[in-house]
Amino acid sequence: MIPIVTPDEMAAIDAAATEPVEVLIERAGAAVARHAVALLGGVYGRSVAIIEGRGNNGNDGRAAARRLRARGVRVIEIEASAAPARLPVVDLVIDAAYGTGLKRPYDAPALAGDPLVLAVDVPSGVDGATGEVRGRPLAADLTVTFAALKPGLLFQPARSLCGEIVIADIGLDVSRAQAHLVEVRDVIAALPPRDPTTHKWRRATWVIGGSPGMTGAPQLAAMGAARAGAGYVRVSVPGDELTAGLSPIEAVQIAMGSDLGIDADEVARVQSIVIGPGLGRSPSLTEAVRRSVATLDVALVVDGDALVALGDQAGDIVRRRRRPTVLTPHDGEYRALMGHAPGADRVESARALARLTGAVVLLKGPTTVVADEGGVALVVLGGDARLATAGTGDVLSGIVGALLALGVDPLAATSSAAYLHGAAAMACAPFGMVASDVARALPAVLSRLIGEGSPA
Hints:
Layout: E1 2-4, H1 7-15, H2 21-40, E2 47-52, H3 56-70, E3 74-79, E4 92-96, E5 106-107, E6 116-120, E7 135-136, E8 142-146, E9 164-168, E10 179-181, H4 184-190, E11 204-208, H5 216-227, E12 232-236, E13 252-253, H6 264-267, E14 272-275, H7 283-295, E15 299-302, H8 305-310, H9 314-318, E16 325-327, H10 331-338, H11 346-357, E17 360-363, E18 368-371, E19 377-380, H12 392-405, H13 410-426, H14 435-453
Parallel strand pairs: 2-3, 2-4, 4-6, 5-7, 6-8, 8-9, 10-19, 11-12, 11-14, 12-13, 14-15, 15-16, 16-17
Antiparallel strand pairs: 1-10, 17-18, 18-19
Helix pairs in contact: 2-3, 4-13, 4-14, 5-12, 5-14, 12-13, 12-14, 13-14
């Protein structure tokens, strides 16, 4: 996993460094110069303009300028506070105007021609903690950040301004970071090996959701669970008749009343339950959901309408549980649980809900955040706008349920599910994708990852 630290955390790490700040600046400048040369494809006949602020970000740019000039690059240094409205024509612009601490808008000078842009630490004008954009920053082709990722590089709208992001090691200790970016190797490590003696009941999942005539959401969750490795998937639509041809046909339908009453012996036969996709929001169901979440003695994924049913009682209800619980809200469901929408700092928003409930929280969005009550946060990049289609969240809840049924640790199961969900979407056609396509793409994605994780 790649560490992520906030600007405040980075300042504390800088202050605790054993080397003088001048040494760190020289290392940062060397890294910027090295990546600038690589971006340019060489130094012969190349020209670079460097916008330099008064702080350490600008000092990094000045250190890079010395190295580039020593290698024969024509370097033009421009003070950020006195920058012209339009930059001179050059091959590369290095944005070292302002770093993560900038709190006011910054309007970058206009570019002349079509130069490449390299941002130092973050594009100037980007909030390093949240990804908010203040003013009009330059869009970078490459961002060279130091020691660890900053949250602002990972969240929109700033994420679209950063280009490729590389981390330069300048000798700072970031081992105590509480947030990390999930990599493919983390997902591979989380997936358990296949037991040759296993049987379907050792990794069984039960999906409870839908309403009479509205069975699509639980079907999609069941597809996600089945395709992600659940050996047995049950589906119950409270108050509905059993439906012929329920998809996937491998799912077993179990009748259930509108009171969501489930015999404890039947609960004991499965390793996880997913509750909520398409369930509906009637007052009677609200009480039934609250009772079920509090009492079901099994790992539980609470999604969709079940989150709305918990509402402002989520903390009290979920904390009664003895088994792992995963909450998967989008912004509207988060509001129902917390009384307000997530803040600009989405990592802290996910942590706040986890602290309230004791659950693992998956806060959905273009960048997904998974957090636990201890403050650990895992950030997942993956997928794109094609996931903004009905039903993909139901597939995701099914994947989480399957990984919990496989015995994966709840935090790892949830973050891995988010990663697999995004990877499956990216394996689909870029246009016209529907939610069931994501589920169908999962076996190939899983097979590829398991193959990558196997010894040669």
